[in-house]
Amino acid sequence: MDRDKEVSQQADYFNSEGPEIFSQFKWAVVRIAVHAPYQLRNSDQAPLALIYASVSLLPPGRQRPLRPAKPFHKHLGQERGTLWVDRIVMEAEQALAWYRSPSQEFRTPLPHENPRKRSDGQSLSVGDLADFPSWPVLGVPMQSESLTDREEEGPSIPFGATDIARYHRRLSGDGKWVDSAAESLGRVLLQSDEGLRFLERHIYIDFGEYPEYLGGITLVVPDQTVQTVRQFVEPKADNSESLLVQVVPRPGQALQGLYVTILEGENGMLTSFMNHKVPEDGIVEVRRSSPIQSSGLVLSHQERGVLLQVPMRTFIRQMNLRVEVSEEVRHIEAPDTDAKRSTIGQYTSTRMTQASSQTLGARRNTQIALQRIIEAQTDRLLRSKARRYEQTWFNVAQRKEALDSIREKIKGARRDLLIVDPYFGANQISQLLFALQCDEVTVTILTSSEAFKIDKKTSESLLVGPPEQQVQNRLQLFRSALVRFESHHKNKINVHVAQGDTGLFHDRFLAVDGRVWILGSSLNMLGVRPTLMMRVPHSKQILQDLQVLLDKAIPLQEFESSKMSGTERSDEI
Fold first, then answer.
1. Which of 197, 421, 452, 569 has its CA 20 to 30 A from that of 62?
2. Does CATH number 2.60.40.10 belong to domain 226-314?
3. Could you tell me if 143 and 309 are in contact, meaning their C-beta atoms sit under 8 angstroms apart?
C-alpha cells in the first residue's frame, strides 16, 4: 500500500471516529514483538505472527524518543524460529488508527520517518481480537479487586506504570493465538524460559504469568495533567495526625477539575468516605484527632472520569533495621541421596553475626482489646484460606472421617477420576471406588509395584507359599476386587503400575475433574496416622507431570503377566 494513501486513511479515521480525548496527543510509541519462522531477511516469504504490541501515547511536553538502530532479536532454534522486538515512533493519530485496524488487515506499523523495507509495513498474522473494555471506553488498573485489599493475590492485569494512565486492550476472543500454527508456537514459547525473559525485558510483560495477552494489543493513554499521586501521614505533637494526599501535575500543567475521594478504615470498618476538590497546589489535608490506621483513595476528573484507584492499606509506622556481618563461610559436601553410588552435592553456609540493630519510628499505642481484634481478624483470614483450599487434618483414630471425606469427593466426579498412590491395593477399590455415582466417569489408577510386595501386616491367607506365590496372591485379590467393581459399575477403569527408579513416586494425589488434592499418607493409612489433606490451588503443572508418570508406568495386565510368568522388567527394583 502507498504510504501517503495509508497515512491519509489513518488520519481520516482518527478525525472522524477517534474520541475527543486523543486529540491532545501528538506522538506515540509502538512496542511490537513478532515471531518469524526464520531470519528477518527471509520474512517476505511468510507472514510474521504478532506476539504482542502496545501503543503508548506520549503526554504533552514529553520528548519524542529515538528508534533503535535495529530491532532486538532472540533465536529460539531452527525449528522454533526467531523473536523480534522493535520500538516505532508514530504520530498519535496514525498509531491509534493502526491500533483499531481490522484483524484481517494488520501490517507491521509504519514509522513517522525512515521506514525499514524488510520490517515496516509487512503483512502481520493476527487473530480475531475483542475489545476490553468496549471501545472507546478506557479502564483504570485496579491494584486489588477489593477496596480494602484483604487478599494477597497478584493484580489481574500486568500494567504497573508509575504514571497515571488509562488502558484499553484488544485480546484474542476465541482463545486461540492467531492460528493453529501460531497456537502451537504459543505453547512452545510458554515453555521457553529464555524467550519469556527476552520478551519481559523489552515488552515489560511476563507472558508466563499473563498468557492471555499473547497475540493481543494494548493502548496506554496517560493523563494529560496528572503525573502521580502520593499519600502519607504527618504526626502532630498532640498525638493527632494529618492525612496528606499530594497530586503531582505534569510539567507545565495546571490542576483543574480534579476530585479525590478519601477512604479511611479501622479494624474492618469504613470510618470515612469523603470527596475533596483538589486545590491548585495539589495538596489535600485531612486532620484527625487520633492516629489514622488505614486509608485509600479514588482520583477522578469531572470530564475524564476515574483516573486512579488505591485500596485501603495500613501505614507503616515503625521499621526495624538489622545489620549483619559474615563471620565464616563454610563449604559443605553431602550425598544427594541415600543410594550407595549417590552423586556428591555442594552448598555453602554462612554464619552471620549481628552488627547493629535500630528501630525507626514509634509503634502505635494499641490497647489490649485492639490487639485482640487484630489477632482475631488475622486468624479469621487464615481460616478462610484454609477452607478455600479444603485444608483438613486427620488425627489418630479418624479413619471413618477420612474415608467419608474421600468418598464425598469421588461422588462429585462427572468426567474423570485419577488416584495416584504407590500403595493403592485391593482394599482401596472396595473402600472408595463404589462411591462413584456416574458411569460416564473414566477412572485411572496409578499404583506401584510396592503395593504388591510382602508386608508383615498382610492377612495370613496371603502369606501362604513362597514369596512369588504371595505376590501372585495379592495380584489375584486385586483383580477380583476389580471384577467385583466392574460387575456393579460401567465405568472405564485403567490401572497402571509404576516400576523402577524413574517411574516410582512418593506423594499421593486425588484428582476429580481436574481438581487435585494432595494427601500426606497413602489411602490405606489415611486417618490411621496423623496426616494432612489439602486441595492444590494451581494443579495444571501437577496433572501434566502425573501424566508423565502414567506414561512411564505399565498396564496392570502387563504387570500381572510378568509376575505370573516369572519374567520382570529389567529396571524393576
1. 197
2. yes
3. yes
